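Risk register update: the risk that structure generation would not scale has been downgraded. Supporting records follow, first protein first.
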Amino acid sequence: MTTLYYYHEDFLKHQPHFSHPESPNRLLSIEKALQAPEFAKLVRKSPPLGQAQRDQAGLIHSQAHIDRTLRMIPEGSHQYIDADTYLSHGSANAALRAVGAVCDAVDQVMAGKANNAFCAVRPPGHHAEPNRAMGFCLFNNVAIAAEYARQQHHIRRVAIVDFDVHHGNGTQAAFAQQAEVLYISSHEMPHYPGTGLPSETGVGNIVNIPLIAGTEGTEFRHKISTIALPALRKFKPELLLISAGFDAHRDDPLADIELVEDDYRWITEELTGIAAEFCERRIVSALEGGYNLEALARSVAAHVGALLRA
């Protein structure tokens, strides 16, 4: 079986007006890293773009949010939704192709055409709430993929693991009352966006794992091993989705967690083990954060390498 790799030049056309951590250079650094010989077996896929992707976005987001976001796309100069979240002329196609990537990846792994997939998409998604774009995010790619799997493939239990350094408030908001979706997030706290306390448990389907500034890989692995992995085994997912943020790396400028590439390899291997045990190896991973270009490239290489070996 294979690992799929989703990428498209439209993702580069979501461009900031001035220096911004969430830039096209992030994907260019990943592209360069995944050109190495050890990734020759990756199967490259081009994500679709069309009306279907607007409909897929509507599985999580209100029509008002979708219309408002697309209506704000500027013809010329940039438009800002908030202090962090921008729109450029190419943002609509980038955001919709990101939705298309994760949904197509779900189709492929559910059809048995691949074990797993990594979607190198931008803009990222996990801060986007059903009615609001925020935190660099326009549409919530992984949340959309989860709901798409439930509705199109009749998956009863979908698990989402989010190891971005920021809490995925949008994903939590989408599923806090949906027992059929398990959401597990490890994240620095206190930190943006201010959500993600352990007491935020939804209907028993939300597992938040706060990390204090300075947390290193040993403590991270301990918490994943004692909290996240048992929750996954108890839930027995039929599909595993990953919000793959790499900004908990020690070299990342936006946070203060001290992970290294081998920690991302380790957690990916642990998750592929869960997927092999419960969901026929089915994993779809989508890029979230990661803003030091060199650390991001190395971390994604470790993550994708583990997916390839699964």
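Supporting record for the second protein:
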Amino acid sequence: MKRLLKQSALCLFLLVSGCSIPTRDVRNAQQPADQNLFPISTTNSDLNSNINLNVNYVIRVVQQVGPAVVRIDSTRTVQRSPDPVIERFFPGQLPTREEVQEGLGSGFITTTDGLIFTNAHVVANADKVTVLLKDGRSFQGEVVGADSVTDVAVVKIAATELPIVKLGNSDNLMPGEPAIAIGNPLGLDNTVTQGIISATQRSVAGLGIPTERVDFIQTDAAINPGNSGGPLLNAQGEVIGMNTAIIQGAQGLGFAIPINTAQRIAAQLIEKGRVDHPYIGIQMAQLSPELREKINQSNVGITITQDRGIIILGVVRNSPAFRAGMRPGDIIESINNVAIQDTKQVQQQVEATNIGETMQITINRDGSRQQITLQPEALPTK
């Protein structure tokens, strides 16, 4: 389980993945008989009945999904320097020692022949992956692919007729909906926690994760180290997210990758073992009077006259934006004829453009409006 440290993030490298798998809209699904979990009650008898209904729906979901939730143990060998301080001054010149690190996470089975979704950080660079089923069986896992940008990975085990989860639709979630997490926090296998969806489309920039490009589901269902890669479920027992992160020192703040995003990434990992994320190569920030003042008082040679908009702070050399002529100080006004109000909209427009397709970007440069045409490329691996 990753622990997030709150910090400001002005730097965003824009990237995205294509490919999608159609999913069923759970809002059109047949509702269970006890869907009305909290009807108005006026007597103790009615209140007890309501409590039983609430307990019963959680029990039903756990019995339905629990057998398809797995524990994932991983080991990896890393090279450690005997003195990191000296290593900084003499890189690669000191003898190193091998150290074996052990990891623990969760996952969920999506096909009867053993395809498992989990977090990339659970299995990244692992020498050995072991998958433990709820029924006690243990299998060696093969990492089909892992994408560090979205923190999604797919693991395969050699088995048949396995229990599987049902994947829901994360596009239409609303705050206040029930949420259930199943996983192996702190090594406590098959732990169940319950809460609600606290928020949707929680920006990773606001959580201080500048390298990932996922808008998280936020939940107050308890998530702890070891829950990583486990399912976040709705009241119908459908997977709506993949638990992935917490904020260090906070309570009731857990985050999950929307299952629609996880499916899209997993499909590419299964098909070609990697994900190509479109990228244009800019650093940007939301303009404000305070930021404008800081820029104008600096010695970077840029003068900003407006308080609103998305300003380019940096352009990566040899990137699509660099070759198209974008430069620090440019202010993005629109992309593909869509007016831009915040950095999230820029990201969304890049996500909507496939690698090699043309993007039309309108910028304001020193008070003059200009058109920039560029084509996103695959995000460099380094």
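The two ends are 24 Å apart (CA to CA). On this basis the risk owner (M.S.) recommends closing the item.
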